[in-house]
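Weekly modeling sync, notes
Attendees: S.R. (lead), two postdocs, one rotation student

Agenda item 3: backlog of single-chain predictions. S.R. asked that every request posted to the team notebook include the full sequence so nobody has to chase files. The rotation student volunteered to paste the first one in as an example of the format we agreed on. Action items at the bottom.

Example entry:
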Amino acid sequence: MKKIIISILYITCLIPQLRAQETLSLKQCREMALTHNKEMAASFQQTESARYTMKSYKGNFFPNLTANATGLYSTADGGYSSGSGQLPIFSSTGQLQQFAFFPGINLDYKIGPMFLGGIQLEQPLYMGGKIQAAYRMSVLGNEMAQINETLTATQVIMKTDDAYVSMIKAQEMKKVAEKYQTVLTELLNNVESAHRHGLKPRNDVLKVQVKLNESELAVRKADNALRLATMNLCHLIGKPLDTPIRISEDFPEIEQRMEIQISDISARPEYVLLDKQEDMARQQIKLNRSELMPKVGLQGAFNYLHGFELNDETFFKDGSFSVLLNVSLPLYHFGERSNKVRAAKAKLEQTRLEKENLNEQMLLELTQAAHNLDEAKMECQIADRSLEQAEENRKVSHSQYTVGLESLSDHLEAQALWQQAYETQVNAHYQLYLSYVKYKKAAGTLYQH
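Predicted structure, as returned to the notebook:
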């Protein structure tokens, strides 16, 4: 009864751990990486920034409405008096006719509090193409940010696929090491039994023990590799590094009838990004050229001024409308602005040459990826055949060793050849899928909206 209770408690404690483990497919890992990966989050924020920048530049096409207010208080005051007296009156011929009494002028002023407020409306009519060029550059910047987001998604998917198949490879390598260790353990038991009965020398026991020690180290390395591969996959899909996850035990299938081409790179986001960079350089020329063009602007304003006492009367207490048309024509700036245009043209030519160079490099990358995929397929086929032959050789060797027709050294060599063939097959399938993913990335078909 006590054992039953202990078993129930053990199973109860084990159930949450089993539930905590997740079995994830490659598609699920990709979706989680695109949603939770930090590189994707940063790329999305970059796109958001470019979008708001574009809206900001779009506002330059519309009027700018501004309100302002100014207050002033001063204790300054004073006055002016002209004094009274006789004012002479002359005729049209210049003769003095008579005098008139002039009572004089007394002016007393006091600044005190003053207030100025108003609204200004500014509308650029023609800026030499500067506003259009700046807005077009912001649109291109937004488009480039979206393309860069696609490029980041492609890189994240490639890293996720690599991490996923690396974990499968680690699992398979662990199985190989454990199977090899099991075979050697069984062989050691048989050899030790034969040695006890005087059928095998002590030297044979030591040979098997050496191989078994090596297999124990291989198992430990396989465990560590699997642990690191799991942590790497958790990092890419946005989970805590110590999350227990499970994945498929088989490598993902690749398209068998996929058409291989080595001449078209137009689907790659890098290719589109280079085109946008060239357009951006053209707009920079227009932006610099606008500094050489005349500028026309219109401003309308309504202002209200209140304050300034003159003889105890408020002198300013009315509002007024005003319209201003401004025309600015640059005449000469000692080559400052014209040289900016020449520099922008040189930058455009540089961008065009870099685009041609990078396009050629991408074509080379596509060709190399296609050849690597073809070689990986053949390597995988050869590895499958080699494993079948090594398995058959191991069985024959075991039979011959059992009946005493083969030495222990030859039998151990057959076991080692089987282990190597098994590891080669696992690595070949791993390289095949990586070559497949790299080819799709080079062709621009790995990730599409």
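Discussion: group reviewed the output briefly. Residues 1-20 have pLDDT under 50 and may be disordered.
Action items: rotation student to repeat for the remaining queue; S.R. to check formatting next week.
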